[in-house]
Amino acid sequence: MPAAYLIVQSQITDAARFQAYMAAAPAAAKAFDAEYLVRGGRLAVLEGQWNPPRLTVLRFPSLEAAQAMYHSPEYTAARALRAGATAVFDMVVVEGVEAAP
After folding, report:
1. Which site among 1, 9, 66, 93 is 20 to 30 Å from 39 CA-CA?
2. What string of H, E and C letters represents the secondary structure of the chain?
3. What is the distance of C-alpha 29 from the center of its chain?
């Protein structure tokens, strides 16, 4: 089963409120064996127009694990902390490629 990658682009409008979300979300992700790969670091657009203010990428063991985390009570509580803190919050999860044998 391939790993899955949860990708978020966000624009933060209330940094203090978003900090509460950032403090709560990692525990929910860790409970589903996720690993943060990117969490708001510097980015450079190499082609095209896409330039999200903030980008986050997590690796999960599977698409199902990412979906389970999203719907979990822990992450539902974290999402409530984020309410009103962002102007943009787009999230997708995509399966990676199978590792070569």
Report:
1. 1
2. CCCEEEEEEEEECCHHHHHHHHHHHHHHHHCCCCEEEEECCCCCCCCCCCCCCEEEEEEECCHHHHHHHHHCHHHHHHHHHHCCCEEEEEEEEEECCCCCC
3. 9
Residue 39 contacts by C-beta under 8 Å, 6 or more apart in sequence? 56
Max intra-chain CA distance, the chain = 46
Q: Which tens digit of pLDDT belongs to each residue from 26-49?
A: 999 999 999 999 999 999 999 999
- Cα dist from 98 to 93, 95, 101, whole Å: 16, 9, 9
